Amino acid sequence: MTGVVAILGAGQTGVGWAARFALMGWAVRVFDPDPATAERLEDELARARRALPGLHDTPLPPEGRVEIVPTISQAVTGADWVQESVPERLDLKRALLQKVQEHCADGAIVASSSSTLSPEDLSGPGARPLSVLIAHPQVPVYLVPLVELVAAPDAPQGALDRAREVLTGIGMAPQTQTAAGAGRVSARLSAALWREALWLLKEGRASTTEIDAAIRDGLGPLWAQMGPAETCALAGAEAAQATAQPGLGDHLPALPAMDEGIAQALLAAAPDDAAARTRARDTDLVGILRALKWTGQGAGAHLAALDVARDLPPGDITRPIVTQDRAVPLDWTDYNGHMTESRYLYAFADATDRFMEIIGCDAAYIATGGSYFTVETHIRHIAEVHAGARFRVETTCLDGAGKKMHLFHQMYAGDRLLATGEHLLLHVSLESRRTAPPAPQIAQRLGEIAEAHAALPRPEGVGRAVGQRPG
């Protein structure tokens, strides 16, 4: 489902909505008198184009047209959805929405991004009744799926259903707030956390670094896959009880009495199969933490640093060099229960990168403008390997003359050969993107290893072609 959306207000939230709708195929009209609107909108679109398609394994629809219009009437006339995202001032929102109702179509969905106001607050007087939904997103809107929906009791029949259909169609996860009133669930929880953080600062109990670390390295990865109720349910009664101890949240309103209603709600949060949910939690955490490790951010930063600190020296270069020694992560397995074929290439690519570091082609060298590019690869899958199994990659340098680097990787679990990867790389200039000789120190180190490995028996499988019979 696509259509025309009017975005009123192009702050951080507004341009996020515009990018989300546009990349999902909607025509977008943006109104904001701020002269910086065009630049802010184009910057957000560029970020969304880079990031959003990577969330999906199917192609996004053709991008919708995005235009900035000079008036509210031009924005909303004929629009299927109107999204108001101006600053959180009731007088400003009411004045704008009164203008909207003069020009929008009868069947249009009119929504506000408000985090504190109710639909009743925003409806206000006008020439004709206007039922406003609250559709409160998280930033960045083009990536985070949650949007909280609230409707007034007198909202037209089916308005929430249509809103959910539209929001689901643009990749969001709408959650209907069951109780009307001011303040979204996410906003209230965020505000409570922020208030307590400020009290910790004021009382000198924690620094901003410690507060951020508590969320980033602890609660954040857990809450990325399950909420606080399910987290406590899996952790057991002790965890829930611990949060009620004196000294915790002293400056927040008193905890409500643990009556039957709350007890039943918490009981309902517990999964039917706690063991299976715990395993799923661990799998999710590995994926989340490994993603953060890949970017070197948040809780992944210290994981990346630990790996660097534990890198082994190359050792005896007269033997194949161990370039990987690790276990198969949970997120490397496929529907057959063993390491998926793309991850064999991933492991061999890491082995190549490690070999490059050993010869001096590291980040510092690459920053000077030289590197090796892989031009041909051949992988043989010989045996299965499962999640948690330890494997190592032994690398033989078959050729290191001139611009060429010819490597043969062998993946083992103990003495069992799992796979081989043969890779041909050429040294290139990153400025011209053409082949070029490596720096003298790189050529010398690579030549030393290639010469030492020339004395080794030629590994079985070198030069194999697809479909070639063994022997």
UniProtKB/TrEMBL annotation:
Oxidoreductase in keyword set: yes
Entry keyword annotation includes Cell cycle: no
Entries under InterPro entries matching the protein: 3-OHacyl-CoA_DH_NAD-bd, 3HC_DH_C, 6-PGluconate_DH-like_C_sf, 6PGD_dom2, HotDog_dom_sf, NAD(P)-bd_dom_sf
Pfam families for this protein: 3HCDH, 3HCDH_N, 4HBT_2
Keywords linked to the UniProt accession: Oxidoreductase
Domain of life: Bacteria
GO biological process, one term: fatty acid metabolic process
Protein name: Carnitine 3-dehydrogenase
Residue span(s) of domain 3-hydroxyacyl-CoA dehydrogenase C-terminal: 185-245
GO molecular function, one term: NAD+ binding
Residues in 3-hydroxyacyl-CoA dehydrogenase NAD binding domain copies: 5-174
